[in-house]
Design goal:
With 388 residues, the chain is α+β, with helices and mostly antiparallel strands. It is 29% helix and 19% strand. Helix 2 crosses helix 3 and helix 4 packs across helix 5.
């Protein structure tokens, strides 16, 4: 028997024949089944007939078997689920773009401020015990006492540690400063001692002792009038600060009051120009200017020549009367200058707490070779700088 319309067999057994017929036709189209001779369908029908006969003992007709076959197939296909979609693999040649994190701009750190203490001290005839020229060397024991007294005057600041930068005047030579450093200042942490010999008639020079290393070559600048007055020059010493910046220190000792005021004015102008044009982050000068108060009133050297600078006694007076006492009168002979506005005004003073440093009237006591008391006829001038 040749069956041309297999779906006709389902009409007697289905209440919804039309819907089932449409479903079967759709199933046929989707699965490529054209007629009952499809091999898989034929095998499945044969198995269903055999299974029905074995289980029930009832002979099942061909039409009923086809009905069961299609119900089973429709159930199987309706229960199938599409396999989960796999993510597309990225080619190694075309990797997935990586999301770059938004760069975080670090907040710039503000430079840390730190203080630098500065002292200028006229040591009054600080000669050693070695004969260099025509002078008579002082006795060894006298030199030892002088060194001890000078050290007391220097170390009376910063809780016994002394200043970071020390300008000294009236020093005979580098040997005298080295002896001072080796015997009494070694524990204070000074790292450099600088003095360059000049052609001063008295044989006295200026020097710089510092807790900072020398960075570069020190220079001794001659005074513009040195051809008529052989005198000490201005010593320039470049120092490297802990933060890597450069501070240039200028040590000075202007001509005494026995010389014309024009020489002190010329010396002040040279110092000003050197400090203005110095290639450094900070510039500091200090020493004995020999400018009396009466002379300043007339010539305006401090307040005129250095009007763009900070000068210790100009920012702190009348906190102290002066650094030098002569004929019952105080004068600001000693001063410290800064090109930058870095002085802390409340730190300016003339330290005078060292033992036997003062006379009974409060004036500085000169060193006495007989009993080893006193230090110098000058008081030191001191200030702290706020640097970054």
């Amino acid at each position: 028997m040749k069956i041309t319309q297999p779906e006709a067999f389902f009409l007697p057994v289905s209440r919804h024949g039309n819907g089932l017929i449409k479903l079967i036709r759709s199933f046929y189209r989707q699965n490529g089944i054209k007629n009952h001779r499809n091999f898989f369908k034929t095998v499945a029908l044969a198995l269903l007939l055999k299974l029905s006969n074995v289980i029930t003992g009832v002979r099942v007709g061909w039409s009923m078997a086809k009905y069961f076959y299609f119900l089973v197939m429709i159930s199987l296909f309706s229960c199938q689920q599409a396999p989960p979609s796999k993510p597309k693999a990225q080619s190694q040649n075309n990797p997935a773009p990586k999301t770059k994190p938004t760069p975080v701009t670090p907040t710039p750190k503000e430079p840390q401020a730190f203080k630098v203490s500065v002292m200028a001290y006229n040591l009054e005839n600080f000669f050693d015990n070695v004969k260099d020229h025509d002078e008579t060397p002082i006795a060894d024991e006298v030199f030892a006492k002088k060194i001890s007294q000078v050290a007391k005057g220097i170390l009376q600041v910063q809780n016994g540690k002394g200043p970071d930068i020390l300008f000294v005047e009236e020093v005979e030579n580098i040997n005298a400063l080295n002896k001072l450093q080796e015997t009494h200042l070694a524990a204070a942490g000074f790292k450099s001692v600088t003095l360059l010999e000049s052609n001063d008639e008295r044989g006295i020079d200026v020097g710089v002792i510092s807790k900072y290393p020398v960075e570069g070559t020190p220079v001794l600048h001659k005074m513009p009038f040195s051809d008529v007055n052989p005198t000490r020059g201005i010593l320039e010493v470049p120092l490297k600060l802990p933060n890597g910046k450069i501070l240039r220190a200028f040590a000075v000792h202007f001509p005494s009051q026995a010389n014309p005021v024009e020489q002190r004015k010329a010396a002040a102008e040279l110092l000003r120009d050197l400090m203005i044009h110095a290639n450094a982050d900070y510039v500091v000068g200090g020493g004995d200017t020999n400018i009396k108060n009466s002379e300043e009133d007339r010539e305006k050297i401090y307040s005129g020549t250095f009007k763009d600078f900070q000068v210790t006694h100009l920012i702190a007076a009348p906190k102290f009367p002066g650094s030098y006492f002569y004929k019952d009168h105080w004068d600001y002979l000693d001063a410290i200058f800064t090109r930058e506005k870095v002085m802390l005004a409340d730190t300016v003073n003339t330290p005078k707490a060292a033992a036997t440093q003062l006379n009974e009237n409060g004036s500085p006591k000169r060193f006495d070779k007989a009993d080893g008391t006193g230090i110098s006829d000058h008081l030191p001038i001191y200030v702290e700088l706020n640097l970054q």
